[in-house]
Amino acid sequence: MKGPVWKIAGVGLGLGFAVSSLGVVNAKQRNNDSSTQKFTITFAAGTWGTPPSPNDAGVQMIDKKFNVDWQATFSPDDSWQSQKLPVLMASGQIPDVIEFDEPDANFVKWAQEGAFLPLDQYVNQYNTLKEVPQYIWDGLSVNGTKYGIPNYFSVDYGKQIIIRKDWLDKLHLKMPTNYQQLENVADAFQKAQLGGPGTYALGLATGIIWDYAAGPYWLSWGWYSKNAKGQYIPGYFTKGNEQRLQFLHYLYSHGDIRPDWASTSVSKVQQNFYAGKTGIIEEQAYDQSPSHFDALRQIAPKAQVVVVPPFRAPDGSQGLEGLSGYYQFYALNAQLKNNPAKLQRILQILNYFRQWVPPKDQNPSNAQFDWEMGHVGKGYTMVKGVANPTADGGLEPDNYIGMRMWAPSGQNADVPPSPNSIQQGFFNSSIAMNKTYKTYIDPGNRVLSTVEMQTWTDTTNWLTDQYTQMIDGKIPFSQYDSIVKTGLAKGGQAVIDDMNRLMKKQHIQGQWISVH
Amino acid sequence: MLKSVSAGERVFDGVNLLLLLMVGVIMLFPFYYIIIVSFTPYAQYLQSSLVLWPKHWVLDSYRYLLAAPLFVRSVGNSIYVTVVGTFVSLLLTSSMAYSLSRNILGKRVYMFLVMFTFVFGGGLIPSYLVVKWTGLLNTYWALIIPGAVNSFNLIVMRQFFMEIPTELTEAAMIDGANDLQIFLKLMLPLSKPALAAFGLFYAVGQWNSYFNAILYLNNPLQWTVQVVLRQLVILQQPLSLLPNQAQVTVQNVPPETIGMAAILVATLPILIVYPFVQKHFAKGVMVGAIKG
Fold it and tell me: How many angstroms separate the CA of residue A23 from the nearest CA in chain B?
């Protein structure tokens, strides 16, 4: 029976080979299908500006390049996260990619309930995610799991004290290095009225905006100092805060700030500075439109604006308060785990838009930059070597994703050249200063406390109201400790306890680093 | 017979006139300020603490607005929603009010349901779900249908219809009119003051529609003028009110003068329409009031 047995074996082998080949072919086809398959991706975000039209050239470019149907919806930002997003989540209509401004109690709750995709296993697969420092991931993790992809924001180019250098020069004054010198400079500015009648030395607005903290030691919302128990405490309860308030009270009592500052909006105070009517405010170099400086240049063409370097604190520290390192972040729908190909496509898109293009290459000769901006002559024009977006935001693919480039550590992401010479002078001084000083990475930015999210605003509102009255002289500084004690009783201590509990659990401490 | 006016009465009238003029000026000043600032060059606005008259009149703000396709389109959206919404609201409110003013089967049940909605609401999420399930999401009907009938307006209008003598309807029925003809040819013409008053209330409500627009409309091309206006005005607000560190670029932040121009454009349609309905509004506002 050899013949038939061999025949049967041969047929069997042949069949087996054919079946396994089919399997391989099918597998290849499946792989090819996922790379050629078009995915519909829903994206929802808030916007402070004018959103792009849903079907403009910019989104068509994204669809073509990545083989997707990118459906972006935008809502006014002031009601997006607090009102519309909870409604979307409750209705079950959860987009694939959801933008948050900042972590809040809802974000923590939804992450704990499994609405969002854990991201830990994907971080090392994409270079721009790998580049995110741990101290930033900490602020977007719930129970040690990463849930948010951060959108870049400078760690150390936030609001800084800026001053009219041309006024200092005219009055033969030196750059102040402590609060007493700053008081003297303010007095001199006020007396000289270099901006004409109605000039004020320093701009202060309702809610004690800005802080005028010349370092983390004085910052009201920074977690820098410790109490007797060794707990980190927010600046609202510290001696540094008291000193800063005394500085502001001095200015108020000497007429160096508007008498009605407590009811003046920040936009009005900013406006006064850019109209040449104020000598000192706070401003940020990062992501700053030149439009205000254009107005200042019209009014005061010889104006020079520079940053005030941080002061040396009583504890010997001198440096910059670090920010969280992100503004806005994206969470992904947990259901995407059931569609790995779609998930990978989403991550590829986000990673693409996060790729770093150095400022010197942000021009038409860089293909990626040119594509993201919608091509020169259409989505943007070059003005004095700086890309200037056109009015129609729908022409830029960038506007449909909203992801900013992630600067690798040490790169100067933060301050591209400005076409306005006054603003460029400000940028230059900021860049030079930031390279000189270390930055404090605040532990308060690295933990997510629901107690803090739910109750801290009420406490700080009460404290701000009390401190406003102290600046105005209605409450004496002898009552500072009593106000602190009351503030702690009004929920402050509960927040301190919970924040420190989380810091201890995650082994987080404040640290000074060199960002540049 | 002419009565002579004493000196004291003249003084009294004069003082009254003066006070009323002052109140009038105080109330009109914000509007005047908006108009003036919208025509003022931005540089002058920045340098002055209070602009009373522009050094020279400019149209830059209006040019910016008219060139912004989203703003122009939003005005069109608002006009559409207001006109259609007011018509639908008046139709539904008046027909239901008339029905409930007559003796119909289940009248008490219907009135109870109306009163129930007067006191209790479903809440934001249930409302959203209902709009979603009925397929109205991302359509203008989401702004029109959910709020088409206001319980208070319905009850007041019902009271109005109840005051119309039943003998009129009986006479019409004897003449061969059916219910629909009675409603359209008899009741509605008699209700012009009420329709004008409630029409204005509905129109203003629709024109000011903001929250429903952001909740139910995901396409910015469908946004109403109040949403776009708020975006323009909010842009002037301190982005410092954001988390202290955050001030993400809004490229080419429009100056405050543009916000003023946008406010004026958004208010203008109501200002234009009001004089034409004012006489009816004055009569209609007392509709349903208790009479002696």
Answer: 43
